[in-house]
């Protein structure tokens, strides 16, 4: 298939390639769970993948969540990872979410916001009842989450962190976010992501 030049490709100097392979459907029977048992346990380092998938996909599989995997060809020269994924998959920027990690008074915390915008640190801090927030050091983020920058997923991290999902996610039946490596996105219901990460939703994204 011919490479397609997109607006983001023009801005960042790369070509996004549509993957000919169809998305991978991962459907599971939704089993009822007793009250208070719906929370997903933290995934230990030794059992994060079991040799298959990514920690994020393993977490979804163990929770019997319906999700779709969307692989695409990642350009090693790309810097705008979220926009690259949106262009390659033909998904609106507002529907693909990036996973950011920031420092608040209590420690590290995760923010899930649309790739079309930025994280409003003031709003993020307020959502977590913290006086301040600042973006975390990339090296520290990779060590704590177990993922590399550009492929950080809100699921399956080495250490469970407080998580806030931008309220705009609830505008969609499904949203996309990293599966834990560059070139692979998960599509699932925002309510499932919020449930599994024990996240709160708040307007923490901003344009520009």
| CATH class identity | Alpha Beta
- Please outline the major beta sheet: 5 strands, mixed
Extract low-pLDDT stretches: 1-22, 26-51
Percent helix, as a range, is 10-25%
CATH H-level superfamily title: YbaK/aminoacyl-tRNA synthetase-associated domain
- The second-level CATH architecture is Alpha-Beta Complex
- What percent of residues are in strands? 15-25%
Number of strands: 11
Structural class: alpha+beta
Tally of separate domains:
1
Mean pLDDT score, rounded?
A: 81
- Overall geometry comes to globular
The helix-strand sequence is HEHEHEEEHEHEEEHEE
DSSP helical segment count: 6
Strands side by side in the biggest sheet = 6-3-4-7-10
Family: Belongs to the prolyl-tRNA editing family. YbaK/EbsC subfamily.
Keywords: Lyase, Protein biosynthesis
InterPro entries: Prolyl-tRNA_editing_YbaK/EbsC, YbaK/aa-tRNA-synt-asso_dom_sf, YbaK/aa-tRNA-synth-assoc-dom
GO molecular function, one term: aminoacyl-tRNA deacylase activity
């Amino acid at each position: 298939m011919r490479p397609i030049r997109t607006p983001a490709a023009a801005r960042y100097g790369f070509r996004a390639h549509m993957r000919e392979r169809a998305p991978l459907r991962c459907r599971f029977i939704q089993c009822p769970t007793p009250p208070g048992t719906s929370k997903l346990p933290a995934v230990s380092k030794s059992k994060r993948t079991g040799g298959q998938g990514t920690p994020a996909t393993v977490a979804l599989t163990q929770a019997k969540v319906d999700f779709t995997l969307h692989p695409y060809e990642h350009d090693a020269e790309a810097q705008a990872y979220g926009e690259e994924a949106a262009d390659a998959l033909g998904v609106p920027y507002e529907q693909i979410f990036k996973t950011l990690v920031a420092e608040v008074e209590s420690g590290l915390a995760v923010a899930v916001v649309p790739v079309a915008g930025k994280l409003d640190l003031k709003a993020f801090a307020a959502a977590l009842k913290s006086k301040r927030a600042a973006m975390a050091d990339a090296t520290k983020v990779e060590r704590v989450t177990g993922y590399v920058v550009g492929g950080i997923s809100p699921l399956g991290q080495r250490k469970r962190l407080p998580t806030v999902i931008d309220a705009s996610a609830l505008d969609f039946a499904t949203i996309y976010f990293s599966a834990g490596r560059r070139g692979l996105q998960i599509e699932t219901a925002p309510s499932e992501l919020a449930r599994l990460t024990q996240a709160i939703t708040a307007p923490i994204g901003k344009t520009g």
